[in-house]
Write the C-alpha cells for this entry.
Amino acid sequence: MRVTFLGTSGAIPTTQRNTSSIFVNREGDYLLFDCGEGTQRQMMRYGTGFAVDHLFVTHLHGDHVLGIPGLLQTFDFNDREEPVALHTPAGTRGNLRQLIEANGTTPSYPVRISEVSAGDTVLDRPEYEVRAVATEHRCASVGYVLAEDDRKGEFDREKAEEELGIPPGPKYSKLHRGEPVEHDGRTIRPDEVVGPPRPGRTFVYTGDTLPTGSVVEAAEGADLLVHDATFAEDRKERAEATAHSTAREAADVARRAGVRALALTHVSTRYAGQADRLASEARERFDGEVFVAEDGQQRHVEYPDAG
C-alpha cells in the first residue's frame, strides 16, 4: 500500500503546498481521497496516474473539492469510458452534482455519486473495505478508514515436510486454504502447519475535524493515521472556532488510538517554513512516529508484522 500526499495545505495553497488530496495505491487499486484545486496537476507531477475509480470526499469545502470538475474533464479528454464513483457525505449529493455540471457540460462516461454516513461500508472488496467514520467540522463531513482483511497464517513448510512427511505439492495449498488433508493414514488439520491469521493494514484519513472519540475508535491500532493538524497550540482557540485540530490534539488522538504512525496535514499558511514546530508539539503527546506530510511525499504502509 503506497500513500502519496498530493496536497497538504490548509484552505489556501502556497508555493510549497497544494490544497487537500491523498492518493492511495492499494495493490493496484487506485483510490483518491479529496480533490482540492490543482489535484490533477499534482497527480501528473508525482506520477500517480489517472486510473482512479473511486473518489472519497470528506466534505464540500472548496479546498477539498474544487479540483473535481477539472479532473473529470481531463478523464473525458482522455476518452475515458469506465465509470467513476464519487462518495460524499449524506445530504451533499446535489451540491456535488451542481459543482460537476457548473460549466454546462456533462462527462461522456458514467459518474456515480453516492451519499455516505458514518458507519457505512463505502467500498467492499474481497481483501479490504473502506468505511466512513464520523468527524466534527462546520458542515456535513466524514472521514474514511481503509481496512484490510486478516491474512492467512504463515505456513510451516519445515514441519509439514520433515515432521509430518508431507511432500511439497497440492496438499500444501489445501492446508493453507484451511482444508484438512489425508496423509499416511491420518487426517492432517490446517492448524498443525498453519499459524494464526495475521493482521492486514489500516489507513485512516480524517479530513477536517475537531479531535473526536469516533476517530479514536475507528483508528484503533491503525498503521497510518492522517489527521487534521491545521494549527499549533498558539491558535488553539482558533482551531476550536473553525472546527479544526491542533497538532497536539491530533497527537492525543493518535496516542489514544494506539496507531503506529501519525501524519499531520492541512497545515495553515501561517506555519510556512515552520512545519517542524507542529511535529515537535505532536511529539510531546505521542511516542510513535510523527511527521508533517509534504506534497509529493510517498509513504509505504507496511504490514504490522513486517520486519
